[in-house]
Specification:
The chain is built from 14 helices and 13 strands. It is α/β, with parallel strands linked by helices. The chain starts with a strand and ends with a helix.
């Protein structure tokens, strides 16, 4: 667990982060979100002490990071940035091997780990291991950056707007890839973004900061979208926040109606589809009703009223 206890960072008279207190549970993705200049990256980099706090305490599993050897601390934490920062004259395999090599692993163990990680991020080792970063697409470089950060199997992964420079289609693909990996790895991930859609898509919890690094709300995405804690939060989330909330909720969690005497609607939607997808289907359907199926089993019928009730 990572704990911020009244952590502040000041540069002269300017406060970048002001008395931030929050806890990040092991194995969850927490997103630090907010407008530019609100202290997101500063908060992130205080965890691995690239930036030292002016006051307060950051602890990992109860140990104050200020008392740890800084090099050992940084090697124990994976770090991914927007521009990736791969060494241009090293191959993909050599880049991924960086931290294990510094940790003193033997060649056989390093080679096995590199192969494992390339397979994990969807880059076949035979095809990609010997390539240079310049020979990769932006999305491929980001995957290598994630693999390198996971090199020594750290428990904590820090990600500073890692997908910010990627085109929207590839960005969603990488978000999905991260969520897939997290189901396997169960890392503690602290992720920085200014994009609220990305925040609510990937975060188990979202910490929304305002200028000066002031924590405005810390909540699960569905709670954040349904119940903004302040006018600042509501304004940052924007008018589309309830539509975003529908994308987080599943059809199977809604109250489904029994089919009536007129039979089942021809239009169907899967039980694991989002309520946002269900609403699209309902709006397209002439009857305003859609059949919900789980494989070959009919679970019921959903309409706009059911969706409205489920989204409260």
């Amino acid at each position: 667990m990572i704990t911020f206890d009244r952590v502040s960072k000041r540069y002269g008279r300017v406060t970048a982060v002001g008395e931030l207190s929050l806890g990040i549970a092991s194995g969850e993705i927490v997103v630090l979100a907010g407008p530019s200049g609100c202290g997101k990256t500063t908060s992130l980099t205080m965890i691995n002490r690239l930036v030292e706090p002016s006051s307060g305490t950051i602890s990992i599993d109860g140990r104050d990071t200020a008392g740890m050897d800084v090099n050992a601390l940084r090697r124990s934490i994976g770090y991914v940035i927007q521009q990736v920062g791969l060494f241009p004259h090293q191959s993909v395999a050599e880049n991924i091997a960086t931290v294990p090599r510094l940790a003193g692993w033997n060649r056989r163990r390093i080679a096995a780990r590199v192969e494992e990680l390339l397979e994990m991020v969807g880059l076949p080792p035979v095809e990609y291991g010997r390539r240079l970063p310049a020979e990769l697409s932006g999305g491929e470089r980001q995957r290598v950056g994630v693999a390198r950060a996971l090199g020594a199997d750290p428990e904590i992964l820090l990600m500073d707007e890692p997908f910010g420079a990627i085109d929207p289609v590839v960005r969603v693909r990488l978000q999905n890839e991260l969520l897939r990996l997290q189901k396997v790895l169960h890392k503690t991930i602290v992720f920085v973004t200014h994009d609220i859609d990305e925040a609510v898509r990937i975060g188990d919890r979202v910490a929304l900061l305002s200028q000066g690094g002031v924590l405005q709300q810390y909540a699960r995405p569905a709670e954040l979208l349904a119940h903004p804690a302040s006018p600042f939060v509501a304004q940052f989330l924007g008018e589309g926040r309830m539509v975003r909330r529908l994308a987080l909720l599943r059809v199977r969690d809604a109250h489904l109606a029994e089919p009536n005497g007129s039979g089942l609607p021809a239009e169907t939607v899967g039980a694991d589809a989002s309520l946002r997808d269900a609403l699209d289907a309902v709006l397209r359907a002439e009857s305003g009703r859609v059949t919900v199926r789980d494989a070959d089993t009919v679970l019921g019928v959903i309409d706009s009223e059911s969706i409205r009730e489920a989204s409260r």
